Backbone:
């Protein structure tokens, strides 16, 4: 058997010594991200969990160390971050915003560009708030008449691709 020190890259020797000192004091270390070397000699990014092992009298007699290779997870996080950054830059350049609605909670999340497009200074919290600024229910036809119905006009393309002409017939004509 070889010493486990072969799994510690040369530039991390002081770090390993500090971990051993903490264990000697009885401290546990949870999910410590660092570089380590696999048995085949390839360096990886790992998450370490190290705990002191104590005998029946409470004296520290060793340490338990679990190392998990998190290289794949970190690479996926980096890829996701780059993708999100590219999307953010494209949205900003094209002046396009995105909002996301969670129907179960009626909650909205907005990008900064979406705020600019709608001319609001802070994100709206619910779909109802968005509908109220976008479609102005206070300006619905026949709202003031207290009829059992009212008409709200939506922008072309929201539900249909053809314009609908509305003719209001009242005492003065069409």
Residues:
């Amino acid at each position: 058997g070889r010493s486990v020190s072969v799994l510690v890259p040369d530039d991390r020797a002081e770090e390993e010594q500090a971990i051993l000192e903490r264990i000697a004091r009885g401290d546990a270390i949870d999910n410590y991200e660092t570089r380590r070397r696999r048995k085949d000699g390839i360096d990886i990014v790992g998450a370490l969990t190290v705990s002191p092992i104590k005998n029946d009298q409470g004296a520290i007699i060793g340490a338990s160390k679990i190392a998990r290779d998190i290289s794949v997870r970190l690479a996926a996080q980096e890829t996701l971050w780059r993708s999100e950054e590219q999307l953010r830059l494209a949205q900003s350049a094209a002046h396009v915003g995105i909002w996301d609605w969670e129907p179960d909670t009626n909650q909205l999340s907005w990008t900064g560009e979406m705020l600019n497009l709608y001319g609001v200074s802070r994100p709206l919290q619910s779909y109802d708030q968005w509908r109220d600024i976008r479609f102005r229910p206070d300006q619905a036809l026949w709202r003031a008449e207290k009829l059992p119905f009212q008409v709200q006009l939506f922008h072309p393309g929201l539900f249909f691709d053809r314009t609908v002409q509305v003719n209001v017939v009242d005492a003065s004509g069409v």
Observations:
- The radius of gyration is 31 Å.
